[in-house]
Amino acid sequence: MTTSLRRFGLQVVLIVIAILLVPLPVLAWYDGIHYWGDNDGMLIVSRTGPYTVGDCQLVSDGDGGAFFVFLDILDLNPSTFSAALRAQRRDHEGTLVLSSCLVRVPPVVLENDYQNFATVSDGFGGVIVAWVGESQGKTKMLAQRINADGTRPWGNLGIVLSSDLGTTSIQPLVCPDKMGGAFVGWGSRLVQVMEDGSVSPGVDGIEFIPGT
Q: What angle do CA 209, 165, 143 make, to 5 degrees?
């Protein structure tokens, strides 16, 4: 089975889970007013060389504000490349509440330029981040939960979701479980990370397309 087909199957599984868990939508009206900054918006983070900002993902904090999870990249090409995952939180007025909190301590550091991560709200004002990174000298799927105040209830290093992936070119997919945890999928595998950081049914989860 091709990689694209496995990925499509995983997306279908997560969409079905999301449909079953998400409550009925509430009608909202928008007045078009710019609440954060002027017509050009608000500068979230700025870096100067040799540091740059890589991919950035936005997640609601459930209280009118948002988390911004981004790659903080140090590029001393061709000698050094490293990337740290950081999270920033702003309230409903755009005021900085949490500044550049490291997702993992020590930081997520990669020696190449391929970094995949995914984010989702934990449903309680925090954010859950899953990423492909290194653990004990092997490439694994990892996850972290950051509370609204920047604390890390799943430990400074996060939690390991997989055995050796053998490659960094895997994109995680994340769906909230509405209980403070999340479903995390990659390739043809799926795990549930509980609110307390335990992994069900265990590392590597289940293979939802057997034989792939």
A: 90
Gap between the Cα atoms of 185 and 205, Å rounded: 9
- What is the distance between the alpha carbons of residues 72 and 44, in angstroms, rounded to a whole number? 13
Estimate to the nearest angstrom the gap between the alpha carbon of 47 and the chain centroid.
Answer: 21
User: Within its chain, how far is the Cα of 179 from the centroid?
Assistant: 17
- 3-class secondary structure, 175: strand
pTM of the model: 0.80
Cα angle 125, 131, 137; round to 5: 135
DSSP notation for 126-150: -EEEEEEEEETTEEEEEEEEE-TTS
Structure tokens at 130: 């899953």
Residues near 174 by beta carbon (within 8 Å), at least 6 away in sequence = 118, 119, 120, 128, 130, 182, 183, 184, 185
* Predicted confidence pLDDT, tens digits, the chain (212 residues): 556 656 666 766 666 565 555 454 443 445 666 677 776 777 777 777 777 888 889 999 999 999 999 888 877 776 666 778 889 999 988 899 988 788 876 665 554 434 689 999 999 999 999 998 877 778 889 999 999 999 999 998 899 999 988 877 789 999 999 999 999 999 889 999 999 999 999 999 998 776 65
DSSP string, 32-61: ----SSBTTB-------TTEEEEEEEEEE-
Distances (CA, A) of 29 to 37, 66, 111, 129, 165: 20, 19, 46, 30, 45
Domain ranges of the chain: 3-20+47-207
